[in-house]
Amino acid sequence: MSRNDILRAAAQIFQEKGYHAASMQDIAEAVELKKGSLYHHVTSKQEILLALLDEALDLIIERLQAVEAKDLSPNLKLRQTMQAYLSFLAENRSLSSVLILEHKSLKPEFIDLHIPRRDRIEQIWREIIEEGISCGEFQSREPALTAKALLGVLNWAITWYREDGALSPDEIADHFADLFIQGLLIR
Amino acid sequence: MSRNDILRAAAQIFQEKGYHAASMQDIAEAVELKKGSLYHHVTSKQEILLALLDEALDLIIERLQAVEAKDLSPNLKLRQTMQAYLSFLAENRSLSSVLILEHKSLKPEFIDLHIPRRDRIEQIWREIIEEGISCGEFQSREPALTAKALLGVLNWAITWYREDGALSPDEIADHFADLFIQGLLIR
DNA sequence: CTTAAACTACCAAACGGTTGGTAGGGAGGT
DNA sequence: ACCTCCCTACCAACCGTTTGGTAGTTTAAG
Questions:
Q1: With a 7 Å cutoff on the CB, does A17 touch strand D?
Q2: A18 CB near a chain B CB, below 8 Å?
Q3: Which span out of A36-40, A88-92, B5-9 was modeled with the highest average pLDDT?
Q4: Do A162 and A131 share a structural domain?
Q5: Do the beta carbons of residue B64 and residue B85 sit within 8 Å?
Q6: Quick check: is B73 in a domain?
Q7: Within an 8 Å CB–CB cutoff, is residue A21 touching chain B?
Q8: Are the beta carbons of B13 and B27 closer than 8 angstroms?
Q9: CATH code: domain of residue B36
Q10: Could you give the CA distance from residue A25 to residue A15 in angstroms, rounded to a whole number?
Q11: Do B95 and B37 reside in the same domain of the chain?
């Protein structure tokens, strides 16, 4: 039994029940330990949450920056970033759910450590859009708002995506990319 | 003190802390009662949640259908529906937050009462898009997915919208409508 | 013999929920 | 005017359970 096993189990339980509805007892049972034994590996429930949030942020920012660094047309870069983001959510469901839905459960004293790095994600989306604008390929009067729209569509997917659905994450991302790039209007 | 006062207070506390982190004690203090007295007006915490979800659904479906019934071009109908939805979120923040973020806390025995009516909302968006397609005004290979995209953008707004922000709900909805209808690409 | 990791047993606090009771204000009869 | 009855609204006290967390002990491997 390792600390990592506990974090993995916690992520899944936080995803299923939400942070506050999940008990240390639940987590202990999932890793086949007694509740008290958890505290040998972990100092508190809050620490588990913070560790999960940090891990999720690290992984996701790394993936986004990998795409951002490529030399692609704005159109393609946006598309590939959306694919990278969505496939991350699909491959790391529970971790992503915690990042997206449970970060509000961080106690105030930990929040300030987390929010700035969280904002970095939104910033990356904004940069991609602004790059597209300055290339003369995109139009948007409020890139910050457009970034929020992108994040909304993708983050919301965590609430409805099923592994056994008809479409793969890449196909879903492609459809969303078409939608954002071309719009609904027939041209 | 009325049952409605209790529901209003509960909605606000559920919004701030989430359902499971909120205690009946919290709610009682907000309406200046003792915890036990709440049970004179309400039978359980779950019942409060269910009542809030039902109320929110009623109000929001009513608003959406009012716009849907109008005789508008697909373009305008989509835009006005987005405005109606977003302005509802802004005018009923706590109620909307509960509807969007806390419905997972409904116990299984209540869920079946709620989910079907919840799906009605998604259906309305899909109808609007499909109407636009059959009019030859919109294009979309997966209207169901497009509906989820719309819902995602709008629902996600509940997580970042601030009353003192630079843009009004109508302006935000307008920007989102432009984005969905015209796309990012310069034409 | 040491050490990490697991266990048992426990704690104070908080939880959702229930109970029995009471203050106070009408309503209605006389 | 007075008394009785009932009802709404509220409260203090408590129930059993669960919570996050701690302390001390045993186990097992190196």
A1: no
A2: yes
A3: A88-92
A4: yes
A5: yes
A6: yes
A7: yes
A8: yes
A9: 1.10.10.60
A10: 16
A11: no
Residues B107 and B16 in one domain: no
Q: How many structural domains does chain B have? A: 2
DSSP A112: H
- Condensed to tens digits (0 to 9), the pLDDT of residues B36-71 reads 899 999 999 999 999 999 999 999 999 999 999 999
Q: How confident is the model at residue A79 (pLDDT cuts 50, 70, 90)?
A: very high
User: CB-based contact (8 Å) between B101 and chain A?
Assistant: yes
Same domain, A28 and A53: no
| CATH number for the domain harbouring residue B174 | 1.10.357.10
A35 touches strand D (CB under 7 A): yes
Distance of CA A115 to the CA centre of its chain: 13
Domain that holds residue A34: 1-42
ipTM: 0.91
Chain B residues within an 8 Å CB radius of A136: 186
**Residues by CB within 7 Å of nucleic chain C, which ones?**
A 1, 32-37, 40-41; B 22-26, 35-36, 39, 43-46
Nucleotides of D under 7 A from a protein CB: 9-14, 18-24
- Of A138, A157, A179, which is closest to B180 when you measure between CB atoms? A179
In a domain, B187, yes or no: no
List, as one string, the DSSP characters of A136-184. Answer: TSB--S-HHHHHHHHHHHHHHHHHH--TTSSS-HHHHHHHHHHHHHH-S
Instruction: Tell me what pLDDT residue A109 has.
Output: 82
